[in-house]
Amino acid sequence: MKDFWVCFVPLFVAVDAIGVLPIYMGLCEGVIRSRRNIIVVQSVVTAALVAAAFLFFGRPLLALLGITVADFMVAGGLLLFVLSLGDLLSPEKARKKIIDLETVGAVPIGVPLITGPAVLTTCLLLTSQHGVQVTLLAVSVNVLIAGMIFWFAVPISRFLGHAGTRTLSKIASLLLASIAVMMIRKGLVLIIADNWP
């Protein structure tokens, strides 16, 4: 149970469903309720499948390229730090225009808004420390939570207000930056330990 929560928290921060909520609302503006429900289901299924595929095939791909877990921890930590810093310093996450209502649930909502670089990087790092099963469970629960937040987007946005949504998003970005620093630190320790004479 402890391993699950250790995996759940950084993934919850990485998904940042509350931070993505204004983008989702913008993408679905003017869309009827039944169509929005289909978009939410499409986004959850796509996000979960991409995360699961990366969990199972990410490590073999790294091994094929000769990249160690320590290397990935440092690179992934740097990437997470840059992403979180961008969210912290930017006035607002960029809003994307709807290209196609038939695919908007898969792209961009499912990928990369729910399952993006931060989630994929975090998944791979957690897998190396806690195993595939626990990480898969944690990422699945987080994707479902994101889906629930989007399903009830209108009342949640009304309750939090613009300021509340922005505040929660910034707190999540700050936590993600801290997790990124921790990953970089652990990766450097492993690299030094492996190359210590």
Provide an overview of this structure.
This protein is mainly alpha-helical and 197 residues long. The protein has one domain (2-190). Helices cover 84% and strands 0% of the residues. The protein has eight helices and no strands. It has helices at residues 2-15, 17-27, 33-65, 69-89, 105-114, 117-130, 132-151, 153-195. Helix 1 packs antiparallel against helix 6 (117-130). The radius of gyration is 17 Å and the shape is globular.
Helix share, percent: over 70%
Low-confidence stretches: 93-99
Q: What's the total count of β strands?
A: 0
Global outline: globular
Q: Helices and strands: which structural class?
A: mainly alpha
Number of helical runs?
8
**Number of domain modules:** 1
* β-sheet strand percentage: under 5%
State mean pLDDT (0 to 100 scale). 85
End-to-end separation in angstroms reads 38 Å
C-alpha Rg (nearest Å): 17 Å
The ordered H/E elements are: HHHHHHHH
Taking the sheet with the most strands, its summary is: none
